[in-house]
Design a protein that fits this description.
The protein is mainly α. Helix content is 49%, strand content 8%. Among the domains are: 152 residues, no CATH class; 139 residues, no CATH class; 73 residues, Multidrug-efflux Transporter Regulator, Chain: A, Domain 2 (Orthogonal Bundle), CATH 1.10.1660.
Length: 641
């Protein structure tokens, strides 16, 4: 063992220590000293156990200290670094990496040191000085045996100039995580459950996808690019599976309106390919499962499709096209039906995914659609009764087909609903013989002064005790009820207005009105009053005056506002457009533009004030001025600009 003993720096690589030891004891290059102590240069470059053991014997440094600061080679380009198994790609080789500021300090105290952490590709910032590390390509196989004085000849002012030119930044959270983990400290749970290389690779690849896009070529990235990717990726992988899913969803959402049918490789590009087609056949870790399930849950593909090494057992999602092909529907007609039913949003891309159960059930149901023109025969009732049944949502209209000349879609009803309503009415029949006092539904409604559909509602709700059917007459025309019972029950039970009356009062279309009902109890919605029979049968939806008044005080349509303020709808709409006043609930949400009454009042009051102050002949001038948000005297009206 050489004397005097030269202390080993705990942050130093064994080869760096060997260079200092050779200079300190022999004043000769390390490669020459290796020959003297019978160590092959190749073995020392590769950090083979025998070479490290010999250095430990000669220097008096413990073999554990030397092993701790270097990746020990295993088979197939694998290394053991402090108990973590990593590949050659995890290391910074073949680059020589150093911190100029550290070298400057070493020059002042004597003897440059190569830090063991510089040998990791993920370490790109000096933890001590906050400088981006310098990367220099090795020109010869034995450059790694040379001291840094040979590889980086700059000293003094020249080295200070290099220091001054470096990018200043904090070490990335990913770099800190890796170094902490190699020191034995715990980190985020999901990352700790992966191998060290899997954790780093997942984090950096996810960051590349988010920062540089799916078409980025990985070999073209610089160390600074990888550092940026690692910083971004770590914000997601540190959260675990939920964070990774969040990142994948952000990437997926960017292709929501893409034309054609973008697949997994198009959407996730470099990230997907790196996991699926790694030349080194590395196990990507749990991220492969996460990405695979994400793809299966969002991209329509047939059963048996292989994703990241595993086959999809059975189809989970359909596009409109694949659903039409499977069920024998016309694609365009099926699309219109799905849009009309709210299963697919209007204008959705062709790759919009539909849960397979929902799609198949809907496709099966639309095969049984009964056109509106046929409903009166199916239910054996009048055409007005069919319209009333749909208006009150006893039957749910289904819209389909391409718009006609008037811009409206065809309308029908699911045949299953027709069967269900007919069965429910038949179940309420208490006698197969009508008494003389019993009359058809239309006649009873006339005597009770209520719409005929209300009588049907009373029957379905189980509120009428005496319902008869004429023999051999099916459907609604065959039913008979007591007009006195209808009148009495209607008077006591039917509080408020029908849906048609309520929506008409608010200047709402029936479809828009029912959409607002479906939103209850959201802020902009209509609250229905439910009337339920003693046996819990089908409830009757009515609208109490106070509920209508509450909605009318807070919200309005253009038609309703124009009616109240005495102006035309077109004129009011122009006024709102001039001040850029938008509805609180747009047409796309419920089929009508819903405004705040308070907003309409402000605009209307401003216009009325102008009318009174300047006279009717000046109204057109107010309209011009509001386009610029100024009043007649150049003062802001508060509504423009």
């Amino acid at each position: 063992m050489l004397f005097p003993h030269l202390p080993f720096d705990t942050a130093e690589m064994p080869i760096s220590y060997g260079n200092r030891m050779s200079e300190f004891h022999a004043g000769r290059p390390f490669p020459e000293v290796l020959k003297d102590i019978d160590v092959l240069q190749n073995d020392m470059v590769a950090h083979k156990p025998k070479a490290l053991e010999r250095i430990a014997q000669v220097s008096g440094v413990s073999i554990e200290a030397l092993r701790r600061n270097t990746p020990i080679p295993l088979d197939h380009r694998k290394y053991n670094l402090r108990g973590e198994i990593v590949s050659a790609e995890f290391l910074s080789s073949p680059h020589i990496v150093f911190c100029p500021a550290c070298l400057l300090e070493d020059d002042q105290r004597g003897g440059r040191r190569v830090h063991w952490s510089w040998g990791l590709a993920v370490v790109r910032t000096c933890p001590r000085h906050g400088d981006a590390l310098q990367h220099q390509t090795a020109t010869s196989w034995n450059d790694r045996l040379q001291p840094l004085e040979h590889l980086v000849p700059e000293r003094g002012e020249a080295l200070q100039a290099i220091v001054a030119s470096r990018t200043r930044r904090d070490p990335s959270a990913l770099q800190n995580y890796v170094l902490d983990r190699l020191e034995g400290r715990k980190g985020p749970e999901w990352l700790d459950a992966q191998s060290l290389e899997q954790a780093v690779r997942t984090t950096e690849l996810l960051g590349v996808l988010l920062e540089f896009g799916s078409e980025q070529s990985l070999p073209e990235l610089t160390p600074d690019d990888w550092d940026r990717a690692g910083r971004t990726g770590f914000t997601f992988t540190a959260v675990g599976e939920a964070g990774i899913l969040d990142a994948l969803q952000r990437q997926f959402d960017g292709f929501a309106s893409s034309r054609g049918t973008p697949g997994a490789q198009k959407i996730f590009g470099c990230f997907y390919k790196a996991l699926a087609y790694s030349k080194s056949l590395k196990d990507p870790g749990d991220v492969a499962r996460i990405l695979r399930e994400f793809i299966w849950d969002r991209i329509a593909m047939p059963g048996g499709t292989k994703v990241l090494g595993q086959e999809l057992p059975e189809r989970r999602l359909h596009t409109v096209g694949s659903l039409a092909q499977e069920t024998g529907h016309d694609t365009r007609r099926l699309y219109n039906l799905l849009v009309g039913a709210g299963v697919v949003p209007p204008g959705a891309a062709s790759h919009f995914a539909i849960p397979v159960g929902v799609g198949r059930a809907f496709a099966a149901s639309v095969q049984r659609i009964v056109k509106m023109t046929e409903l009166s025969q199916v239910l054996n009732c009048t055409r007005p009764m069919v319209e009333q049944l749909c208006d009150e949502r006893i039957l749910t209209p289904v819209y389909y087909g391409t718009p006609g000349i008037n811009g409206k879609l065809q309308k029908g009803v699911n045949g299953d609903e027709c069967v269900a309503i007919a069965a429910a009415l038949s179940a309420k029949v208490t006698s197969n013989e009508a008494r003389p006092s019993q009359v058809p539904i239309a006649k009873a409604a006339e005597k009770a002064k209520i719409p005929a559909v209300c009588v049907v509602q009373l029957i379905l709700a189980g509120l009428l005790r005496n319902v008869a059917r004429i023999d051999d007459v099916s459907g609604i025309k065959g039913l008979r009820v007591c007009p006195f019972e209808v009148k009495s029950v209607a008077r006591s039970a039917l509080r408020g207005m029908t849906a048609s009356e309520a929506f008409a009062a608010l200047k709402l279309t029936k479809d828009a009105g029912w959409e607002l009902v479906a939103r209850y109890p959201e802020e902009v919605s209509l609250e229905p009053h439910k009337i339920v029979g003693n046996r819990g049968d089908r409830a009757i939806s009515r609208f109490l005056p106070e509920a209508i008044a509450d909605f009318d005080r807070g919200f309005t349509t253009l038609a309703r506002a124009a009616e109240i303020h005495g102006s035309g709808v077109k004129e009011l709409k122009r006024s709102l457009m001039k001040v850029s006043l938008k509805p609180v609930l747009p047409w796309g949400a419920v089929g009508a533009d819903i405004y705040l009454v308070s907003d309409i009042a402000k605009v209307s009051e401003a216009e009325q004030h102008f009318r009174l102050f300047y006279g009717q002949h000046m109204v057109s001038e107010w309209t011009k001025l509001t386009a610029f948000g100024k009043g007649a005297h150049g003062k802001s009206t508060g509504y423009g600009g």
